[in-house]
Design goal:
The protein is an alpha/beta fold. It has 14 helices and 16 strands. Helix 1 crosses helix 8, helix 3 runs antiparallel to helix 7 and helix 5 packs parallel to helix 6.
Length: 430
């Protein structure tokens, strides 16, 4: 089955997806008892194949890029999709970083003795079969597959139609590495069709095979997954990230951090979308911050104070405070100190990533403890919201939920646990 966008019959979709599900469930049982050395050998081989097949991967990506340009995808979406030698090498390096991590499976999280002599352990175990639905970024294929393998889970991957050929070229490296290492190639599977019905079937009809679904992509995709899934979901709705420049912020640091937070890569979920500036330092800080953003090529949509700071600022609408631009656009607002910033983030944030720039340690600690987001930073760019930057090797996504996993979802977050109880013939009294 190819990705030419052809619809397939619903009956065929059901048959295809059930076969994938059965293979994944069987593979998960194998992976759950696979030793760390075998998993790491497969991952190491996958990294080698990514590098040795770089030309093939880039050729496939070129095909995707050509189609994406013809469809008129935005510059930020094209950047997400684009691969080059450096990005392929980065994928391989990310897999090797995952190899270097401790195997979470079998880790004893806690252990205690009971008065009756029972010894109880809480031990990490794989989740089982993980369905991953994502858009645009073909590197997610490598990251997600590698993290699932490291954590002993089988993976069912459904990349976006725009990255079909790139993702399948990357997946071929993973599948070959599994088979060469003596593991089932079906432990990591790509859904081989762009038919949207396949996603619907994955979400609604595969509970016998799939234990959890992880969406990674735009707001509409994630909202659909959270709405339609009949299995647990690990995901976030959107990355509406803020940088708050406090009255005690060093101006030079603030400019550097704000520019990096917004402009390093505008199309990622950790990109800052709103800049909040303490009214106490607006006279000295607001105009230089706005000017730096404008001169970096960023459109600024601001409140009255921001408009006064620079005539190039576009008046902000109420919708701007709630918009994830994923582009070179930022909303700028002046607030009344830390309390004003916290209120704004509580009212408009998505619980993803928020940063404070300040030299006041007490103010920073209040921000870190009172802003209810998955990731909060002090004097650092929001673009550090990344599993690789957290030392996790890679991540499947940033979870803004509060159940099971929150923040970067790496190998450890793709495990659950069970209790292992050891006795010496104890029985419970009547």
């Amino acid at each position: 089955m190819t990705a030419e966008g052809k619809k397939v019959e619903q009956q065929d979709i059901a048959s295809l997806m059930d076969r994938i599900g059965r293979s994944a469930r069987a593979s998960a049982a194998v992976l759950a008892r696979t030793e760390s050395a075998t998993k790491d050998a497969a991952l190491g081989r996958a990294a080698e194949l990514l590098e040795s097949r770089c030309a093939e991967i880039l050729k496939a990506n070129g095909r995707d890029m050509e189609a994406a340009r013809a469809r008129g995808l935005s510059a930020s979406m094209l950047d997400r999709l684009r691969l080059d030698e450096a990005r392929v090498r980065a994928m391989a390096a990310g897999i090797r970083d995952i190899v270097a991590l401790p195997d979470p499976v079998g880790q004893v999280m806690a252990e205690w003795d009971r008065p009756n002599g029972l010894v109880i352990q809480r031990v990490r175990v794989p989740l089982g079969v993980i369905g991953i639905v994502y858009e645009s970024r073909p590197n997610v294929t490598a990251d997600a597959g590698a993290l699932c393998l490291k954590s002993g889970n089988a993976a069912i991957l459904r990349g976006g139609s725009e990255s079909f050929y790139s993702s399948h070229a990357i997946h071929a490296c993973l599948e070959t590495a599994l088979e060469e290492s003596g593991l089932p190639g079906k432990a990591i599977q790509m859904i081989p069709t762009t038919d949207r019905e396949a996603v619907g079937y994955l979400l609604g009809s595969m509970a016998p095979f799939v234990d959890v679904v992880v969406p990674r992509g735009g707001k509409n995709l994630i909202a659909r997954v959270q709405r339609d899934a009949r299995v647990p979901v690990i995901g976030h709705l959107e990355g509406l990230c803020h940088v708050y420049v406090d009255g005690a912020a060093d101006l030079s640091m603030a400019i550097d951090v704000v520019l990096n937070s917004k402009m390093r890569r505008t199309g990622i979920c950790g990109a800052a979308e709103t800049l909040l500036v303490d009214r106490a330092c607006a006279t000295s800080h607001l105009q230089p911050l706005v000017r730096a953003l404008l001169e970096a090529g960023c459109e600024v949509r601001g409140d009255t104070e921001a408009q006064r700071a620079d005539p190039r600022v576009v008046p902000a609408s109420p919708e701007d405070w709630d918009t994830e631009y994923l582009d070179a656009i930022i909303a700028v607002r002046t607030v009344d100190a830390l309390d004003g910033a916290i209120r704004h983030i509580a009212d408009h944030g998505s619980g993803h990533t928020d940063s404070i720039i300040t030299d006041n340690a007490e103010t920073a600690e209040r921000f870190l403890s009172e802003v209810d987001s998955a990731i909060v930073l002090h004097n650092a760019s929001t673009q550090f919201a990344d599993g690789g930057e957290f030392g996790m090797g890679a991540e499947i996504g940033i979870s803004t939920g509060r159940v099971h996993a929150r923040g970067p979802v790496g190998a450890e977050q793709l495990t659950s646990f069970n209790y292992r109880v050891r006795g010496r013939g104890q029985t419970r009294p009547a």
